[in-house]
Amino acid sequence: MTVQAAQKKGEVGMKFRPLKDRVFVSYSEEMDKTAGGIYIPEAAKEKPQKGKIEAVGSEVKNLKVGDAVLFDKYSGSKINMDGTDYLIVKEEDVLGVFEK
Predict the structure, then answer these.
(1) Quick check: 54 and 82 in contact, CB under 8 A?
(2) 92 Cβ partners below 8 Å, 6+ apart?
(3) Would you state the CATH architecture of domain 3-29+48-97?
(4) Is 6 strand, coil or helix?
(5) What are the DSSP calls for 28-96, one per residue?
(6) Distance separating alpha carbons of residues 91 and 67, to the nearest angstrom
(7) Which pLDDT does position 16 carry in this prediction?
(8) pLDDT(19) > 90
(9) How far is CA 80 from CA 16, 58, 87, in A?
(10) What are the backbone dihedrals phi and psi of residue 18, each rounded to the nearest 5 degrees, phi first?
(11) CA triplet 26, 30, 35: central angle to 5 degrees?
């Protein structure tokens, strides 16, 4: 499914179709706040990130659009479209899917 199909639902403003075994993931680099009031950006932490699958390539077998996934902090290629951060990741780099 391409991001164009998601666009019809009003989710994404640009067209993007991942190729082969890649997925297109939306995510945000949230910041946590310490007890002392200091904000710690996600980039300063060594933990996986959570995102949502927006589109999948033709060879993706275990993921589908809408899945909430966990991926390694340094996986994939980051891009920004319409003010939203996205990541293009190989299916094998996704660590897991959150079950509903």
Answers:
(1) no
(2) 21
(3) Roll (2.30)
(4) helix
(5) ---EEE-TTS-EEEGGGS-S-EEEEEEEE-TT--S--TT-EEEE-TT-SEEEEETTEEEEEEEGGGEEE
(6) 12
(7) 86
(8) yes
(9) 12, 23, 9
(10) -70, 150
(11) 165
| 3 token code pair | 């991001």
- The Cα 45–Cα 31 span in angstroms is 10
| Residue the block writes with tokens 């275990």 | 62
pLDDT digits (tens, 9 = 90+) for 35-86: 677 766 655 556 778 999 999 999 999 999 999 999 988 889 999 888 888 9
**Rg of the chain, C-alpha, whole Å:** 14
pTM for the model stands at: 0.70
* Lookup: tokens for 96: 């897991």
| Helical segments of 1-100, H only | 3-7
Number of other residues whose CB lies within 10 A of the CB of residue 14: 11
